[in-house]
Write a structure and sequence with these properties.
It is a single chain. By secondary structure, this protein is α/β, with parallel strands linked by helices. The protein has a single domain (about 5-175, about 200-225), classed as NAD(P)-binding Rossmann-like Domain (Rossmann fold). The protein is built from 8 helices and 7 strands. A 7-stranded parallel β-sheet has the order 3-2-1-4-5-6-7, sandwiched between helices. It binds NADP nicotinamide-adenine-dinucleotide phosphate. NADP nicotinamide-adenine-dinucleotide phosphate (NAP) binds next to helix 1, strand 2, helix 3 and helix 6. NADP nicotinamide-adenine-dinucleotide phosphate binds near residues 11 and 75. InterPro entries: 3oxo_ACP_reduc (IPR011284), KR_dom (IPR057326), NAD(P)-bd_dom_sf (IPR036291), Sc_DH/Rdtase_CS (IPR020904), SDR (IPR050259), SDR_fam (IPR002347). Its EC number is 1.1.1.100. It is an enzyme of class 1 (oxidoreductase). It catalyses: a (3R)-hydroxyacyl-[ACP] + NADP(+) = a 3-oxoacyl-[ACP] + NADPH + H(+).
Length: about 230
């Protein structure tokens, strides 16, 4: 069965690994990108998820090529780390606007087609940081914790319509987002991870694909940690 899948931020990092996992399984995969040359093998649509008009245009393009989105992975996200004392209002609101309100924009637009089809799978990419907190990441943690309440509310609201909403909470994953950390920060992190290493993006992608598969048909409102044991189930 070839489904219409959308992965936001599917042009690199975890999103690209997720897009590849669905494409390898035979799905029709659309990805969003903001600039540069997107990777080949997908329907790449230019879209900044902080702009509702760009989200609308992206969906129109995807629907014309692949039909209604049946599986949505809200993956796009940013960090703007700063201690609270130095965190500006813009540092806070811009991270919320991308990570939480951006997810709202893409989920809301996908919901239209899913309601009509009477089925749908939504997976939101949160973070272990949203559950445990992290000094210097109050904005990011708030946005990622917000995704949990968002998904669980929608799981209740739309369960009867056969649409599932689940959250994946990765630990530290080897991508551009974490490559900017110093060697000292990286080894501090690894020392707290029971499995003693970073995740590869493909390890997050495998869980996302499972949540969108028939094998996960009775799972909704769940938060699945993929964090090497860092959060111990939280
Ligand atoms: N890496 C980790 O350790 C880790 C751990 C837990 C959770 N996560 C979460 O996993 C997701 C992917 O992270 P990553 O590590 O793959 O990060 P990444 O390599 O920095 O990639 C971020 C992705 O998000 C996209 N993006 C950012 N802002 C956007 C916007 N306004 N509109 C559309 N796309 C936007 C980027 O697109 P451009 O290429 O256009 O910038 C890029 O595709 C994020 O939500 C992140 O918070 C990551």
């Amino acid at each position: 069965m070839s489904r219409s899948v959308l992965v936001t931020g599917g042009n690199r990092g975890i999103g690209l690994a997720i897009a590849r996992a669905f494409a390898d399984a035979g799905d029709k995969v659309a990805i969003t990108y903001r600039s540069g040359e997107p990777p080949a093998g997908f329907l790449a649509v230019k879209c900044d998820i902080t702009d509702a008009e760009q989200v609308e245009q992206a969906y129109k393009e995807i629907e014309a090529a692949h039909g209604n989105v049946e599986v949505l992975v809200a993956n796009a996200g940013v960090t703007k780390d700063q201690l609270l004392m130095r965190m500006s209002e813009d540092d806070f609101t811009s991270v919320l606007d991308t990570n939480l309100t951006g997810a709202f924009r893409v989920v809301k637009r996908a919901n239209r087609g899913m309601l009509r089809a009477k089925k749908g799978r939504v997976v939101l990419i949160s973070s272990v940081v949203g559950l445990l907190g992290q000094a210097g990441q109050a904005n990011y943690a708030a946005s990622k914790a917000g995704l949990v309440g968002f998904a669980r509310s929608l799981a209740r609201e739309l369960g009867s319509r056969n649409i599932t909403f689940n959250v994946v909470a990765p630990g530290f994953v080897d991508t551009d987002m974490t490559r900017s950390l110093s060697d000292e920060q990286r080894s501090n992190i690894v020392s707290q991870v029971p499995l003693g290493r970073y995740a590869q993006p493909e390890e997050i992608a495998a869980t996302v694909r499972f949540l969108a598969s028939d094998d996960a048909s009775y799972i909704t409102g769940a938060v699945i940690p993929v964090d090497g044991g860092l959060g111990m189930g939280h």
